[in-house]
Amino acid sequence: MHVPSKTACLLLCLTLTAAVANGQTQVDPDVALKMLNSQQQQFERQVVKVADNVFTAVGFHGANTSMIVGTDGIIIVDTLRGPSSAAKALEAFREYSDKPVKAIIYTHSHGDHIGGATAFAGANRPDIYATETFGSAEGVNKVVNPVKMKRNVRQFGRDLSAVERTNRGVAPAQTADGDGGKGFLPPNMLIPKEGLKTTIAGVDLEFHIGPGETDDAMFIWLPEEKVLFAGDNFYSSFPNLYAIRGTAYRDVLKWSESVAKMAEFQPHVLVPGHTMPTQGQETATAMLKDYSESIRSVYDQTVAGMNAGKGPDQLAHEVKLPEHLENKPYLIEFYGSVPHAVRAINSGLLGWYDGNPTTLNRLAPRTKAIKISKLAGGTQKLTEQMEAALAEEDYQWALELSDHLKWLDDADKQLARKVKIQALRGLAAREYNAPNRNYYLSYANELESGQLSEVWF
Q1: 285 shares its domain with 375
Q2: Is the per-residue pLDDT at 438 higher than 90?
Q3: What is the 3-state secondary structure (H, E, C) of 244-278?
Q4: Which of 244, 276, 311 corresponds to the end of one domain?
Q5: What pLDDT was estimated at residue 10?
Q6: Exposed site from 45, 91, 358, 403, fewest CB < 10 Å?
Q7: Where would you find the membrane-spanning parts of this chain (predicted)?
Q8: 450 burial class (0-12, 13-18, 19+ CB within 10 angstroms)?
């Protein structure tokens, strides 16, 4: 099963419309909303039978969980975020098998895949499989957890109202997170770097190391059933090569190579970490090849631009998906974003400095704001320019001007804040990239409620 044909057609038509825009993820508000609503079908709650003995539960939380039925037990692949959502998925699975859980597999260590293990394990303690490097998913020092948590809430729109919520790109807008992580069980069967072939409950399985969204990722292959569990290295959206909540560099080249390796198996069924499974050897293989190519293309274009002396700001507006890939429904930028990926690749390979000596020691924000104000003809003129940009729906420019005005002692800072709120909501309405949309709206709400400091960080 893949995207329903009507949905695929709608997404394609809307994407073609979007392509006429500015090359980013900003389109007409009605188009953006229709695109996000169409994507919603990718995580409607259901159990999908992907093979005679393989079932995938979609929509019980943000991620997927799967059950493989063996001779004397079942194998669970990923366990959702917490025991409450996992228990509901298990209840749905029990309509197809009442056999005991013999093993649990973690495709990687992100919390939405490992937090519900106790619900599946019950009183038993089945073997739990993960990579030797399990736990290295984030890689960011814990000292920045306070700001990461704030940005996480914004990216996923966790505090948005029902009216503001759409979805998270590859997950529903709302999930039961109150018990997140409380059902985690540590792995006791660690997969070495060369992988592992084994038999569990009479089912032949292959574990293959495949770094991508995380360094500790692996994919699972069922040679008899021709089913491939991709984890979060594949889902129906352009991949999140960088998460705006804040992550360490995700090795983009390795990610592309891992997906290419998956394609070599020519699976009859492709089970992603999020969104609907895909059935059909030709379709599933083509999707993996396209996915790998899209990642590699963004990487290659970015590296070529960097070596030509171009900085991330320029490249973020220049790098595009190849024409034959840009309108594939499973590569629409609902979750990941090409511009974000470009900036992440630049930073990951070269660090923060773009090579331009002008940026080696930038002016302090307040100093630059004063000089911009003088250039505009004074604070009042700068204010007028900000208001004009808002009136013309030039929302990004209105944002940037408001950020200058907030530093000026003689500026109307309340007006600047008000303009920034309106501009953020204007941008949000046009976004079909869910993290961008959620972040704009969340930040606007924080500004309006007074949660943010005078410098608005």
Answers
A1: no
A2: yes
A3: CCCCCCCCHHHHHHHHHHHHCCCCCEEEECCCCCE
A4: 311
A5: 55
A6: 358
A7: none
A8: exposed
